[in-house]
Structure formats: C-alpha cells, structure tokens
Amino acid sequence: MRILITAAGSRGDIAPYTGLGSALRAAGHDVALATTDAFAPLVREAGLEFRALPADPRKRGAGTGQRELMRTAAAFITDLGQGFADAMDDRTELLLLSTSTAPLGLHLAEATGIPSIGVYLQPTVPTGDFPPVVTGSRSLGRPANRLAGRFALRMTDRLYAPAVARLRERLGLPPASPSETRGRQERSNWPIAHGFSTALVPRPADWRPGLHVVGNWWPHHPAAARLPEDLEDFLRAGPPPVLIGFGSMAAGDGDRLSGIAVRALRRARLRGILQSGSAGLAADGDDVLTIGDVPHALLLPRLAAVVHHAGAGTSAAALRAGIPSVTVPVTADQPFWARRLAAVGAADEPVPFRTLTAERLADALGRVVREPAYAEAAAKGARHMAAEDGAGRTVELVQRLTGG
Fold this sequence. Notes:
Keywords: Transferase. The protein is of the alpha/beta class. It has helices at 11-26, 40-45, 57-61, 66-81, 102-112, 142-171, 178-187, 229-236, 254-267, 296-299, 312-320, 334-343, 358-370, 372-386, 390-402, and strands at residues 2-6, 30-35, 49-52, 94-97, 116-120, 192-194, 211-213, 242-244, 272-275, 288-291, 305-308, 325-327.
C-alpha cells in the first residue's frame, strides 16, 4: 500500500513519524512523509520518501504568550494551506494525518475518496478526565473539562477556517462548516491512533469508539549511530551528568539561559551537558559540555536527570530512559506534559519558563537527583513503556482498517 504521512511543526512534531514510517515500510508499505523542507534530511535518513509542505516551522514555534502564539499559528496555517494538496500524488492509497495537518487533510481525503487515519501526538478530543492540553490549566472538574475541550476545538477551527475554505474551493468541494466536518468524523468513528504512552495518559473512558492510545512512535536513528567521541569522553569522566535543553523553544534567549544553567548546576554540585537547540545554549568548563542534536535513546539512559521544556517527545523520552525530569514548560501543550510527569512522580513540580532562575533550577535539580522517589517513579514508567509497541500497534491498526 502507498501511504502518505503528513506532519508539520517543529522537530518534535516530525521526528516520531520517521519511526512510524520506518515500521510501516518494514511491513511492506511504500511510505512518503510530507513535511517542511527543514526536515528533509530527517525523513530521507529514515529511508522514507520526502514530500515538501509549504510552511515555515519557525512561525509555529515563535513566541511564548497566548496572543503571539495565536498570531504565529495563524500565519503558519495560512502557509500550510497553500499547496497542501500538492503533496499527494495519484498513487496515494492512504493518508495518515497528524494533529496539525488533519484539519486540512480531511478535506483532501473527502475530495479524492482516499481513506484516512489520524496519527496524533496529543489528546485533543474532549474528555472529562483533563482539560484541553493547550490551555495549560489544571482540571476544572469533569463537566467543565469537556466544555473547555469543545471550546478549544472551536478555537482551532477558527484558526484553520480561512485555509480550509480556500482548500475546499481549490478541490471543487462545496463550503462546509467545521461543525459539519466534525459531525461526519464522529458519526463515522473516524479512527485516530494516539502516539503516546498510557503511562502518562491512560485512554479516557468517555472517548468514542475509534480513538486508540497505542504507545509512542520513537524517532528513527540508524542502527550504527554512536554518540560523538567528546560526549563519550565527558560521560566517562565522572558521575552521570544532567542534560539541559529547550528544544525548539526560547530562540534568542541563549545567553541568559546558559548563565542560569551553569549557575544552577554548580549550585547543585552537578556536572552538566547543555544541548544548544534553538536557544543556542553554550558553555565551557571541566564540568560542562555543549552538544548539538544526538539521539535521545543513546544519551538519556546515561544521565542523572534532564531539564527540558516538556514537549511531548522529550517528556516521553525521559520517562522511557527511566530518569527524572525538571520541566520548564514554555507554551502550547508543554504545561500539560509537565504536569503528567509530575503526576506520575517522575518530575518535580513544573518551573514555568517565565519564572526560571538559577536558584529555582538548582533546588529542583537537587531534589530529583538526590531523592530516590523520583528515579523510582521514572523507572516504573520506563518498565510500562517497554511493554508498549506504538509503531507495531499502528501497523496492525492500518492493516485491520484498510485490509492492506
């Protein structure tokens, strides 16, 4: 079967689909991954065909305030909608649509008659179990959580509405309101595979049929991949260090964050690795090393703890490695994942990005590294995740739903 996966956003929004695509390819399918040009090497390294989507992922990740986030998200979606249909060719037999591309891809599936399945990294369907992942709020109670979830979907519809209207016109489809589209999804029990672990988010009992929580899709990395030699030397030179990184967040704030990180590490008497990321973290010293991108699966199990922005992928990778976290959520769904890690005991209470200081970071690091309960909870989560096979379950789901 010829499968097209579509995903857009930052690296953490794309990398999991390289693992899913590799599993589908190993099962005998012909797989292409459509995303933005910046991630073409990531896609091709996984042995997948690359298709370009017309959007700049930097627009989606810019800003930390809600108003700025909405503005930049709207600009990102406008770009994404222009030419989204061009990513699909006449041979495509199945569309797998991410959270960010489904609001457009569903209309492409409607126009072509090609079946589609959601492949989501976040739980976006309303539930009484928790509030919408993008609000960053604590539970409001079951009825209010569901109401807030429906409101969040309406806000998403508003963001996508102009791009959807233009795409439907281009595809020769009549106008359709978001409520009509969602109604069709719900009546048909449109299938969505959620690529996260039940160790962090058990499947809500009030979800409709067709919504599956399958476990994480881990990013592909070559079997022969190794850590850089200078990193290996640093790891061997002393006790397990702490990794500090903010992924695609905090661009332009590197000097301030690097200073906070180094002061916190030394105050907590810990060795540290700074991962440069979009912020450009950097520091030198016998007790600190700066690195670029390396596979989490190779590095994290050798650490004492990790300080991160609580993106879905990094949160899962830390728990998979069985190490505790200090979370510094910035925006979007990050406060949700930060609270989930804290709820299972594998992280301290989140330190919001705007309130981060060297003193707060040092205190949190001291707790998660030296109090055994955090590592024990992380190890329990790791054992749970080891029993899951997110990619394998999704391959089975695809084959069951399509007969392919």
